[in-house]
Design a protein that fits this description.
With about 500 residues, the protein is an alpha/beta fold. The protein folds into 2 domains: about 10-110 and about 400-495, Aspartate Aminotransferase, domain 1; about 120-395, Aspartate Aminotransferase, domain 2 (3-Layer(aba) Sandwich), CATH 3.40.640.10. The chain has helices at about 10-20, 50-60, 95, 105-115, 120, 135-140, 160-180, 185-195, 220, 230, 255-280, 300-315, 380-395, 400-420, 445-455, 480-495, and strands at about 80, 90, 155, 205-210, 240, 285-290, 290, 300, 320, 350, 360, 425-430, 435-440, 460, 460-465, 465-470. The strands form 4 sheets. Strands 3-11-10-9-6-4-5 form a 7-stranded mixed sheet, with helices on both faces. A hairpin with a 6-residue loop joins strand 10 and strand 11 (about 360). Helix 4 packs antiparallel against helix 13, helix 6 packs parallel to helix 13 (about 380-395) and helix 14 runs parallel beside helix 16. The protein is globular, with a radius of gyration of 23 Å. The two termini are about 35 Å apart. Its cofactor is pyridoxal 5'-phosphate. One of its GO terms (cellular component) is mitochondrion. Belongs to the class-III pyridoxal-phosphate-dependent aminotransferase family. One of its GO terms (biological process) is gamma-aminobutyric acid catabolic process.
C-alpha cells in the first residue's frame, strides 16, 4: 500500500496575501511556519521553567495535577507540538487523539479566514430552535457523507460524553415505545417522571464492559470501569457489566484461545442480560467501544462483535458503539466497526474528537417521536461542522485512509521489532491505523519509558495499567515513525 505525501503548506507570503485580501487583523497568521519541523528538538527538561511557572499560576485557580506542559500553539505545526519553553516534540498523542490533520493545518486556517464563515464563528446558535439556513445541507455534506453504512439519521452534540448521554436516551425511549406498543405515555407516567419514580422513570439498565470508558458525565460514567479517580464519591446506578475479551498476541498464534475467550465473554453477556431481567431491571442497551481505549487498547474480534449484535437483536436490545476515539479514519477505515463486517448497522454510533464535533448516528427506530427529548441549549456547534468539511475534503483528496492504514502497518512492524529486541520490556504490540499500543511489565516501567521518550522529543500517552498508547494524526508519514523508532530504541537502552 503506497503512502501519499502531504501537500506543501502555503508559503508565508500566500498566508499574508489571504489576510490582506480579507482585511482581517489576524496578525498571528504570519507566525505560522512554512512546514512542520524536520525533527524533535529538546532544549530543557519537560516541563521546562516557563511551563512550571505557568502551572503554578494556574494551580491558584484550578487543580493542575494532570497538566503535562504548556503549549505554544502558534508555533506548533503539523505532527509537531511546541511547548512554551521552545521544546519541539513529535506528537503521537495529539490532544488525546482529537486532532485529525495536525496543528495549524492550512485548510483549517483557510476556513477561519473565509468571510463566508464569519457569521458561523461569531454567532453560536441554539440549534434545536434556531438553526442556520444551510444547516441541513451542511449536515448532508459532512456528517451524513461519512455515516456508518445503512444509517441516515444524525444528531450533533458538543462532546463525547454528552453524545453518549443522549444516545442512551434514544435507546431508552425506543425501548419504552415498544413496551407501550406505540401508544402515547399515560398520565401516570408523565406525572411520576417528574418525581424520579416508576413508571415514568422506569427501572431500565444499560450493560457495559469491564475496563470500558465512555465519559465523565453521570450516565456515561456509570458505563465506565477503568480508574477509581473517575468514579470515587459519585453516585451511580447499579447497572450490569460483563467481561470484555482479553486477546492474546500474536493473534494468528492464539486463534483457538481467542475464539474460546470470545465465546466465554458472549456467554457472560447473555447471563447478565437474563439476570437483569429477573431482577426487574431489564437491559435496554448494550454500550461498548469497538476497542477499549482508556482501558488499555483492548480489541474485540469481528467474531465477538458479530455475536454481540446477534444477542442484542435476539433480546430486542439496542447496540451502541462508542466511536468517540476510534472514528474519523483513526483505524484506517472511517469507523473502526467497519472492520467487524456486522450484518446490520449498530443502532447508535457516538462520535467526537477527530470529528471536531460531538454527536451520534442512529437508526430510525431510535428517533424520538416528540420534540425536546434530545435537546440542550446548543446541541453542537455549526462552526465545528464547517471545519469538519475541510477535514473530510483533505481526507478524500489525499487518500488519508489509505495512508493511515499503511502507516499503521509500519508502526506495528516498528513496535514488533523493538519487542523482539527487548522481550523483557515490551509485549503485545497491537494496533490499527493511527491506533497503536504496546505493553510494559508494569505501570512504573511504562511511565518511565514515557518520560524518557518525552525527554527525547516524543510525546505519547498511556492507558490501562501498563500500556503505552500511540495516537497519531491522519497525516503521519513513515518518516515520522522512523524518528519515533530511533528515539524508542534509545529510550529502551536506558531502561
Amino acid at each position: 500500500m503506497s503512502t501519499h505525501l502531504l501537500r506543501q503548506f502555503p508559503t508565508l507570503k500566500a498566508l499574508g496575501a489571504v489576510s490582506r485580501e480579507l482585511r482581517f487583523p489576524w496578525s498571528y497568521l504570519s507566525t505560522l511556519a512554512v512546514t512542520e519541523p524536520s525533527s524533535p528538538a529538546v532544549k530543557t527538561a519537560i516541563p521546562g521553567p516557563k511551563s512550571s511557572t505557568m502551572k503554578r499560576d494556574l494551580n491558584l485557580i484550578q487543580n493542575t495535577d494532570v497538566v503535562h506542559f504548556f503549549v505554544d500553539y502558534d508555533r506548533s505545526m503539523g505532527n509537531y507540538i511546541v511547548d512554551v519553553d521552545g521544546n519541539v516534540l513529535l506528537d503521537l498523542f495529539t490532544q488525546i487523539a482529537s486532532i485529525p490533520l495536525g496543528y495549524n493545518h492550512p485548510r483549517i486556517m483557510k476556513v477561519l479566514t473565509d468571510p463566508v464563515n464569519l457569521a458561523a464563528f461569531a454567532n453560536r446558535p441554539a440549534l434545536g430552535m434556531y438553526p442556520p439556513s444551510e444547516f441541513a445541507q451542511i449536515l448532508s455534506e459532512t456528517l451524513l457523507s461519512v455515516a456508518p453504512r445503512g444509517i441516515n439519521q444524525v444528531q450533533t452534540m458538543a462532546c463525547g460524553a454528552c453524545s453518549v448521554e443522549h444516545a442512551l436516551k434514544g435507546a431508552f425511549m425506543a425501548y419504552r415505545r415498544r413496551e407501550r406498543g406505540g401508544s402515547p405515555p399515560t398520565q401516570e407516567e408523565i406525572e411520576t417522571s417528574l418525581l424520579n419514580t416508576p413508571p415514568g422513570c422506569p427501572k431500565l439498565s444499560v450493560l457495559s464492559f469491564k475496563n470500558a470508558f465512555h465519559g465523565r458525565t453521570m450516565g456515561a460514567l456509570a458505563l465506565s470501569h477503568t480508574k477509581w479517580v473517575h468514579k470515587l464519591d459519585f453516585p451511580s446506578p447499579c447497572w450490569p457489566f460483563a467481561t470484555f475479551p482479553t486477546l492474546k498476541y500474536p493473534l494468528e498464534e492464539f486463534a483457538d484461545e481467542n475464539n474460546a475467550e470470545d465465546a466465554r465473554c458472549l456467554a457472560e453477556v447473555q447471563d447478565k442480560i437474563a439476570s437483569a431481567k429477573r431482577a426487574g431491571q431489564p437491559v435496554a442497551c448494550v454500550a461498548t467501544e469497538p476497542m477499549q481505549c482508556e482501558g488499555g487498547d483492548r480489541y474485540g474480534s469481528p467474531n465477538f462483535f458479530q455475536g454481540l449484535q446477534d444477542i442484542c437483536q435476539e433480546n430486542s436490545i439496542a447496540l451502541l458503539l462508542d466511536e468517540v476515539q476510534t472514528g474519523a479514519g483513526a483505524s484506517g477505515k472511517f469507523w473502526l466497526h467497519e472492520h467487524f463486517y456486522l450484518r446490520d448497522p449498530p443502532n447508535l454510533v457516538t462520535f467526537a474528537k477527530k470529528m471536531l464535533t460531538g454527536g451520534f448516528y442512529y437508526t430510525p427506530d431510535m428517533r424520538p417521536t416528540e420534540g425536546g427529548r434530545i435537546f440542550n441549549t446548543w446541541t453542537g456547534d455549526p462552526s465545528k461542522v464547517i471545519m469538519l468539511k475541510a477535514v473530510l475534503d483533505v481526507i478524500k483528496e489525499e487518500r488519508l485512509l489509505d495512508r493511515t492504514a499503511d502507516t499503521g502497518i509500519y508502526m506495528i512492524e516498528i513496535l514488533m521489532a523493538a519487542q523482539n529486541k527487548y522481550p523483557n520490556l515490551l509485549s503485545n504490540s497491537r494496533g490499527l491505523g493511527s491506533l497503536a499500543a504496546v505493553d510494559l511489565p508494569d505501570g512504573e516501567s511504562r511511565d518511565k519509558i514515557v518520560g524518557k521518550l518525552r525527554s527525547k522529543g516524543i510525546n505519547v500517552g498511556v492507558c490501562g495499567s501498563r500500556t503505552m498508547r500511540l495516537r497519531s494524526t491522519l497525516t503521519l508519514e513513515r518518516k515520522h515513525i522512523d524518528i519515533f523508532a530511533d528515539r524508542l530504541h534509545a529510550a529502551l537502552k536506558e531502561m
